[in-house]
Every structure is written in C-alpha cells, then in structure tokens.
Amino acid sequence: MTRVLLTGFEPFDGERTNPSWQAVRAAAAEPPAGLDLRTAELPCVFGEAARALRSAVAAHRPDVVICVGQAGGRPDVTVERVAINLDDARIPDNAGAAPIDEPVVPGGPAAYFSTLPVKACVAAVRAAGLPASVSHTAGTFVCNHVFYALAHLIATELPALRGGFVHVPYAPEQVTGRAQPSLPVETVARALREIAATAATTREDLRLPGGATH
C-alpha cells in the first residue's frame, strides 16, 4: 500500500466552507485500490499552516503528500508546478496577518518545482472526463506558503518523500448569485483520486506542452 497524505484548508475570507477540505475528505472515504489515503485539515494561517503540515507528515509518514487549496475563479482542477519563496497577502489570513514581501523560508531558494508528475496527473484527470490543467502559479497566499514549506521539507530533510499542490474551484454553494465558475465537491474528489493514484505510480512525467499563469 502506498500511503498518501491529502491536506485541505479550513474556510477563510468569510466563507462558511472550503471545498479543498470537503473534497479531500470525500476522496479519502473511497480510496483507489492500493492506496492508503490519510487526511489533515490545515489552518489558513501563515506559519501555523506550515507547522501543521510538518506535524501531519511526522504523524502519518506518507510516501506522497498532496496539499489542496481553494482558488476561487478558476474553472478546473489545477495541478501546481512551482512554489515560490514569497508571502505577499492580498487579504489577511484567519489570524489577521497579512505579510508583504516576506520569504516563506528566510535564505531558502527562490522557488521549487513540484516533485509530482504534474502533467501526467492532469492527463489522468482529463482521461476520467474531468476538467484539469497545469498551473504555473500557486499565488502568494497561504496555499503557496504551504506548497513551498512542503517542497523545502522534501529538499532539506525528506528526500524520499514526493509532494505537490492542487488548487480547486469554488463549490456551487459558494457562488450562488455570483458569476463565478464552480465544480461539485464529489467531482473534485474524483479528480483528487486520479491525481493520488497517478502520483503514487508514476515517476516520469509526460513531455507535453501545457500550463497557465492565470
């Protein structure tokens, strides 16, 4: 059994729900064959989120980590390729902090690439009839903060671990009365199962064009 840790976030920015955590729980409730899916909910707080991720990795000892967050406005499931060493908050986090031009890890590299086969993951989701694409920006809010923290942990302490980040759209109940794209949580959960299965079994990524900066 390959152990995969899926993480999602608590609600933020006044929302009552966060589809990343909803979808992570739904995906883990029906794991793909051969996978042991573990879950952890992260706080939407700079610093605390990275510490919670580290604790979850230590507790579950996964082979693969897939962190998941909400990217309202995106129409599909986006597998992130790059984490950057920058906290630059457009809005305050859930503790009221809004860092500007601060590094995630002082003295750390400017960026890390995901160690997941991002294009193969996208291809698997699309083959299942679900919308997905490669993203070249995870933003500069808590999602990117966690992605970079994970990548730095892998690069400096846990080289056998593989991990990356996935952004998901709003859930339908979040966009009532708003002209914003959304996907049902169960659709996102199906996509996460495909990504987890592909990440667990695929080491070499596909050499295909693709990716957007949104």
From TrEMBL:
The protein's Enzyme Commission number: 3.4.19.3
Enzyme class: hydrolase
InterPro entries linked: Peptidase_C15 (IPR000816), Peptidase_C15-like (IPR016125), Peptidase_C15-like_sf (IPR036440), PGP-I_bact-type (IPR029762), PGPEP1_Cys_AS (IPR033694), PGPEP1_Glu_AS (IPR033693)
Active site, UniProt feature: E80, C143, H167
Swiss-Prot/TrEMBL keywords: Cytoplasm, Hydrolase, Protease, Thiol protease
Pfam family membership, one: Peptidase_C15
Main location per the UniProt record: cytoplasm
Keyword presence, Electron transport: no
Any one Gene Ontology molecular-function term assigned to this protein's record: pyroglutamyl-peptidase activity
Catalytic reactions on record: Release of an N-terminal pyroglutamyl group from a polypeptide, the second amino acid generally not being Pro
Cellular localisation: Cytoplasm
Entry's family note: Belongs to the peptidase C15 family.
UniProt xrefs under HAMAP family: Pyrrolid_peptidase
Protein function: Removes 5-oxoproline from various penultimate amino acid residues except L-proline.
PANTHER family (UniProt xref): PROTEASE FAMILY C15 PYROGLUTAMYL-PEPTIDASE I-RELATED, PYROGLUTAMYL-PEPTIDASE I
The protein's name in its UniProt record: Pyrrolidone-carboxylate peptidase
